Amino acid sequence: MKLDILAFGVHPDDVEISAAGTIIKHLKMGMTAGVIDLTQGELGTRGTAATRMQESESASQIMGSTVRHNLAMEDGFFENNQNNKLKIIEMVRLYQPTIILCNALNDRHPDHGRSGRLVSDACFLSGLSKISTEYNGHQQQAWRPRAVYHYTQDRYHVPTFVVDISEHIDAKMESIKAYKSQFHDPKSNEPATYISSPEFLDSIKARSAEYGRQIGVKYAEAFITERYPGINDLRDLI
Q1: CA angle 99, 176, 200 (to 5 degrees)
Q2: What is the per-residue pLDDT across 8-42, written as a single tens digit (0 to 9) for each?
Q3: Fewer Cβ in 10 A, N or C end of the chain?
């Protein structure tokens, strides 16, 4: 199954927090998209790896994505090494996406930057035919996505471009709330964390509103590129 967009997140909920609106929008436009989680988020203070796996399935249903894998790398301690690059290359070659979305290159959580660099490196290497990979016993062909876009996360970065998600902000927020163990729940007895306050969810929507205001829409999501993007028509920037 070839996908138009393949989104990587180091923790289950990274993609939802930062890029769910963009994914939902493009799915509604008839494109195809999937999500790959690098870890199970097992070091998270709240919840367990098992609950987060269940929550990620619920979030995928809300977004409408039909493909989701978890590569079970070690939360907090995974490395940008050959073994982990090959795991990502297998996914890229399996789904042959045109566009990759992945973690910010610099962020509050050190896993985010390491993941963003790992995925970007793997996408380049995936295009080298002398790197041999197979999936379920089948030899894979080299494939390099046309673009790698890093979504913005906790830290503010000046974006390269933003995507209008005004019509999909409610679905985005619902996909985030699917991670009931992680975010605000007044009935929860779990320890309070940086992301479990009601203000954190408010800040996600406020950030989208600020990005949207800059382009004259209600809500938007922001992305950063490692190389400048090209366009065919100046009207694409309106």
Answers
A1: 115
A2: 999 999 999 999 999 999 999 999 999 999 999 99
A3: C
